[in-house]
Amino acid sequence: MTTWTSDELQRIAEAEELELAPLRRDGTLRAPVPVWVVRDGDDLYVRSFRGTDGGWWRTARAGRAGHVRAGGVDKDVAFTDLRDDETNDRIDTAYRTKYGHYGGAYVDPMVASRATTLRLVPR
């Protein structure tokens, strides 16, 4: 597995949204959807606003791979689950900090969707 460059991390983290296209089981990419993305150290994370009912999230969990685009970065990625409470706490804070200007109606569901946290790993 490869790692993000400092430039890629910064450009994606500074983007308001990430276009995410998960890979279906048949090997085709699902249509890209805009999702919020946050950074924690040298890692990037996404969550499903709709929780485990989110269609893109279910496809990403099943296929474990996809493609992302944000801040001029275009990259194939793997999706890995995150079950670490300490990291999830930092991701909660990152969502509140980056997207707090949208208000609780949008940010609270993202914070409540901890079970859907996926780490984006470049391929």
Structural commentary:
- The protein has 123 residues and is an alpha+beta fold.
- The chain starts with 5 loop residues before the first helix and ends with a strand.
- The model has no long low-confidence stretch (mean pLDDT 96).
- The chain has a 7-stranded antiparallel β-sheet with strand order 2-1-5-6-7-4-3.
- The protein is built from 4 helices and 7 strands, in the order αββββαββααβ.
- A hairpin with a 2-residue loop joins strand 3 (37-40) and strand 4 (43-46).
- Helix 3 packs antiparallel against helix 4.
- Helices cover 34% and strands 29% of the residues.
Instruction: Specify Rg, calculated over alpha carbons.
Output: 13 Å
Overall shape: it is globular
By DSSP, the count of extended strands is 7
* N-to-C CA distance: 6 Å
> Largest sheet, described in full?
7 strands, antiparallel
Mean pLDDT: 96
In sequence order, what are the helices and strands, one letter per element? Answer: HEEEEHEEHHE
Strand composition percent: 25-35%
Query: Strands across the major sheet, in which order?
Result: 2-1-5-6-7-4-3
Helix count equals 4
Going by helix content, strand content and strand pairing, the class is alpha+beta
Spans of at least 5 consecutive residues with low confidence: none
Q: Brief overview, please?
A:
With 123 residues, the chain is of the alpha+beta class. It has helices spanning 6-14, 55-63, 85-99, 104-112, and strands at residues 18-22, 33-35, 37-40, 43-46, 65-70, 73-81, 118-122.
